[in-house]
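Hi R.,

Here's the chain you asked about this morning:
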Amino acid sequence: MGQKGRTASWRIGSTFLAVTALASLAIGGDPVDPGIGDPYPFAYCVLVPDVELDDDIKILDFDGREVRVCCGDCADRARRDTYNVLRQIDELVVKEQKALYPLTTCLVDDKPLGDNPIDFPFRNRLFRVCSGECQSQIEKKPAVHFGKLDFAVIEKQKAKYPLDHCVVSGKPLGGGGVDHVAANRLVRLSGYDQLGAFSKSPGKYLKMVQEAAEKAPAK
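And here is the predicted structure, written out as tokens:
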């Protein structure tokens, strides 16, 4: 099921991008379970950026990496041109997540990132590392490094979180709530039962938190 592609790596400036292409269409439009990784983080189709995703989306699985497109035609295009589609998504991941990145040191060895870190988009999440060896450690132990980055994001963003209610259910967060991280952004939910609903439309909810943060007064 699916068509085996190739693994490709390249640099754009100082940005290192890695792509593994093994594509299949998720049955029934259900979210892909990547094991360790983030859902597709955008509220729009990467192939037709002015089209917002709705209930008729197609969800593609590229070797455990989730990509969402607006229609069957775009799904076919993505499978035919996997290399360039994933490259485009990786460029957007770097562009949109860099400002949110919570660390000035390498996640792997704690060395200062300096002026020319490697920006490594991996399973829809931006990691910033100081060397190719540290990048390979993230690929070898994704659970460890996603967990470390989640912790850093929560620590950095929680005090200035812009909403007092769950972005999915609308319920007040009060003194509780579940701290969830996707696309290097903290999303606070009223309970674990909201994770399933979040995964159905992650781009929409991430956009709502982003817009709230942009409107919030400085703390």
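One quick note: The longest strand covers residues 15-25.

Cheers,
M.
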